[in-house]
From TrEMBL:
SUPFAM superfamilies: Histone-fold (SSF47113). It comes from the Eukaryota. One of its GO terms (cellular component) is nucleus. Its main location: nucleus. It comes from Erpornis zantholeuca. This is CENPT protein.
Length: 129
């Protein structure tokens, strides 16, 4: 009769093995802030959800294309030239609108200083390559 009163031990499940690894995501607040900056009008929640899905798909495709360009060149690292080729294929970079002009038009000054080389006294380039 004592054996009937004792409870059976049930093995605990390992929760870590059941979780799927999550892909990194761009914060929703950042997407919302960028979108509102360019739209300059109120946006409904439904419209924002669609924008969020579109931006996620866009960045997935962008990263796949950059990976393919680097692989085609026989490299394991994506370089700035790959990004420029991709932007040229998308029509963002043209002969009349080079990459440096896009950077100057759309990025804040602190990012411009990091991306566009500038000659300073002593014949030095900042940022150095």
């Amino acid at each position: 009769p004592l054996q009937l009163l004792q409870h059976k031990t049930v093995p605990k499940r390992l929760r870590t093995s059941q979780r799927k690894p999550r892909e990194p995501q761009i914060p929703r607040s950042l997407i919302k802030e960028i979108f509102r900056h360019f739209v300059k009008m109120p946006v409904t929640r439904d419209a924002f959800k669609i924008v969020e899905k579109c931006s996620e798909r866009y960045f997935k495709q962008l990263s796949n294309d950059l990976e393919a360009y680097a692989h085609h060149a026989g490299r394991k690292t994506v370089e700035a030239a790959d990004l420029e080729v991709l932007m040229r294929r998308q029509g963002l970079v043209t002969d009349k609108m080079p990459l440096n002009v896009l950077i100057e038009n759309y990025l804040p000054l602190e990012y411009r200083k990091l991306l566009i080389p500038v000659a300073v006294s002593g014949n030095k380039l900042i940022p150095s390559k």
